[in-house]
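Record type: monomer structure entry
Structure origin: computed from sequence
Chain ID: A
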Amino acid sequence: MTGGGPKTGGDPTTGAVPSAGGVPSAGGVPSAGAAGSGLLEIKDLRVTYGTGADAVPAVRGVSLSVGSGSKLGIAGESGCGKSTLALALLRLLPATARLTGEILLDGEDVLTMRWGRLRAVRWAGASIVFQGAMHSLNAVHRIGDQIAEPLLLHRRATTPAAARARVAGLLEQVGLPAARADAYPHELSGGQRQRVMIAMALACDPRLIVADEPTTALDVMIQAQILRLIERLVADQGISLLMISHDLAVLADTCDRLAVMYAGRIVEEGPARAVYGAAEHPYGRALSAAFPRIGDPASRRAPRGLPGDPPDPSALPSGCTFHPRCPVALEGCAHEDQELREAAPGHRAACVRVGTAVPTQPSAEPRS
């Protein structure tokens, strides 16, 4: 991430500037944040592309919270708006996007920050692991130089030698030998490149990591290694995690809480095991049923899917946007949208049938 940092101070031995221990204010002083609030608070966030009659809604009134040291997973099909949401959190969307609502990081609204302040927040507040490591890394620069660049740019190291030492430590932290700092991206495997992206995200000691499909295009064994690495780093360093994936089972195995997204809205949220094993929204149940389950031979022979395709954001159905694909839709679902309502303590779903007798799938543990 690009950003600014303290101009003076540092360890005379390593040349490293000490961590702020929080999101720095405009003058470099850590912000105390809002008392009693989460590290990240998203309030009625809306993202549209284009203007006027050509405006296309990508995110429609999302409200979420990520507490310090907690792990939130966001699941949904391709095109549901989850990657747009991730990029919006740090204002990384193109100029054609229009954002409204609030994104409070430690009590400060990212959407109203001036450019200099936003750069500071991006290094001490949050960092992002982009989808597709090969496309995120510069093919003509060694990976050590790419990890060192933000360290020097944001004054986390004041000399090239200090930056190289920090890079070696970061590579070892993510399970790569320090000698791989001299490698080019094409010389690494997919799993190794993903570890490099995680090292880069950790470089400036963020309080929040946003991981957008961090296991995309990796085989199952490498996926498991990357997920365990992320879990270990989050636990050891007390970092908060917002992780995005289409795989509800992976998120349930990694995160504390889950939010299910459909057509730009959150349609269900709650504890990970509850959302995965006993989803209240028909779409949440369909996502969970799409993957084979341990101890369920029938699901391995024919995992259940969902007919139809996600709606076109420029021509959303009336009422509940899921009703054309919903197996338990009622007549009124085509005319009236549903807000999130509590199904159990801490578990909410946007469905008219919440709290009524709706056929559910057998509860199962997330696959490991």
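Annotation 1: The domain at 40-125+206-349 is CATH 3.40.50.300 (Rossmann fold).
Annotation 2: The first strand starts at residue 40 and ends at 49.
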